[in-house]
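FAQ: What does the model actually see?

It sees only this:
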Amino acid sequence: MPDALSGVLVLDGLVWILGVTALAGVIYGFAGFGSALIFMPLATIWLEPAFAIAAFSLSAVVSLFTVVPRAWGVADKPATFTMIGAAFLSAPLGIYLLRVLDVDLIRTAVAGTVLGTLAALMAGWRYATRPSFAARAGVGAATGILGGLTGLMGPIVILFNLGAGNRADVMRANTLLFLTIITILVLPQMAFQGMLSVSALWLGVLMMPVYAIGTRCGQALFDPAYDVLYRRVAYGIIALAGVMGLPVWQ
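And it is asked to produce this:
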């Protein structure tokens, strides 16, 4: 283990984090969302939320090579990049709140966001009209604030894309493209606010190959013909992650 990590994680903790990273990668490649929903509640059992967000954001760089190429040709890129731009502009506010708020409050926010998102997904929330530019920009901005604070870029945008009425493959591609790019774009913003430590960078580097293998495995498992099955599996794992991430277990 690099010296920069020795004061942060014991061996058992590192094994746990890498195992969670692999699971998050499989879910991301498989369902098209859910990696941060899996990683953040479980990783913050061992790590401070800011540390976990920074390490995970760095590890997500590998998604540019593992899942984005296939998603690129399917995604609605103008709509998705509108949301990415808005999220990028609003994320610094969320990162600032991450700096100043209580750690247990953030952990509760992470677990609550996970479980609330899951409930809405399972209830089949939808809306009828096609989203406007303003609606997409607003959703992107809200996502950036929540993501900067909790590391969870997915919940709002997942609900939005599920309700937009697109085909399952387009919805999945839009979500993959958004989550991968905005997670990476948060890195320089965290560095600017002094939230990107050397230890977090080391951990992110260690996580990269594990996450890459996980996303490849998950992508290989994806079959549009079994849409209902893969969503149910993802929902079950996300529910477990949300419950385990509650501060009561710390």
